Each structure stands twice: as C-alpha cells, then as structure tokens.
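pinging the channel bc i need a second pair of eyes. not urgent but kinda urgent?? the chain im working w is below, pasted from the shared doc
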Amino acid sequence: MTNQHLVNKENSRVTVNLEDGERVQGKVIWVQKDIDLAIVKINESNLPVAKLGNSDDIKIGNSVLAIGNPLGVAFQRTTTKGIISGINRTLTFEENGETIFMEDLIQTDASINAGNSGGPLINESGEVIGINTVKITTAEGIGFAIPINVVKPIIESLSETNKFDEAYLGILAYDKEIIRYVKSNISIENGIYITDVTQNGPAERSGLKKGDIIISIDGVSLDKVIDLRKYIYTKKPGDEVSLIISRNNGIENIKVKLQ
C-alpha cells in the first residue's frame, strides 16, 4: 500500500526495495486519486507482513509511529514518534488550478517529512492504522494519514480472489464540514450533500439529484463521505443499494443498481 501520487496510474511499473537490499519489480494494480491511495503487487513470497489495526478505534492522544524515507534513500526506514492530534481532518489545496479536498484524515505530530509519503502510521501494538500522505509545510508537527479502514475491503478482495471489481455510484458528495467551503449558503446537520451527479450514471438513472442529502445506505448511517466510500468498496458492480435521502425537507427511499 502506498500513495497514488508516488506511482501515478494503474499498470505502472515501479521498483520496490526490500529490507535486505534486494530490488524487485512491482506492478500497480489499483489506484484511487481521490483518496491518494494505490496498491503495488510484487511476485515474492514468504515476506513478513504488517498487521492492520482498526482506524475507527483511534482516539486523540494515542501514541503512534510514522515510518518512511524522508529526503531520499539515505534516510530510508526512518521512524518518528508522536500522538494522534486530531481525527476527521479536512485539507484544502490547489493542484493544477483545481481546488482539492481531502477528507476524514488522521492528524499526527509524528514528523512526516518529504519522502515519508506512502509509509505506514502505526499504533503502539505495531498495527497499521493509516497511510502517511501529506504535511503542512508552513507548520511544525502537523502531518496527515489516510485511515486504513477505508481500504480494507480492497485488500481483502485482492488477497482472497486476486482481483477487485470496484462498484460505482456516480456522485460527487461532501461532508457537512466541507460543504460550507463549497457552498457557503448551505448547512446540513447530518448526512452527506450531493454536489454533482454523473450524467447517465447509476445514481442519475435512479433519480438522485444535485442537492440531495444521503442520510443512510442499506441502513448504515452516513455523516462522512469516507463511510460511503468504505461501504461501496464492499459491494460489487450489479449490486443494488437502498439510499434514504432528504430532498426539499422530505424523506425518500431510492434504490440504485451499482455499475
């Protein structure tokens, strides 16, 4: 597991350095730019593996370790220690003239320098609870990691079946914490706000519209986009999901067949 911004696109070839110094060729088998994650496969066996923790259980003040390669291979596998400084953080930045939002991140004060991207954030039990992604360059001790739980369904599918068929809903939505940045005249108490619907996608064909607020999916309450993403990752193309939405102060139930 690593960051998408490090490996670019699916089917790219990358070189992986193992702990004993061996260099092996890897292939990028999954990427998701929206959350800056990617999975690389190497054809090796009997390698030690890290145990995955539960990022939903973390609390502010928990001790963590960040591992990475700051400033290049000269300082590879550098380990820094800190605490969880915040959860469900949102970052806003400009990239190629476009405003990018990264939501529901873990904030830590463990040193995350240039080159730490893609490394694990580990709890005191040695379990991976996040993937380090970015830091605030104008501040000291403010770094961020992507919660590991969001990608667990993908890892499990790849491990069990050697493939992952990603289901597609066809919306762009934001948390209640984000929507005030995107549309300053809108405020919601719960659910996630749909700002765009893909033309002729499954959501549009089922009647979802811009401005709808998704309250739950198959009975699972939603307050963060990452919760919707985690749930969709457990489904397969062709599966049907049931959404409870708020529209014009009324409640509706809409069924969507995922692509």
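so Residues 33 and 114 are 19 Å apart (CA to CA). and The first strand starts at residue 13 and ends at 17. — does that match what u expected or am i reading it wrong
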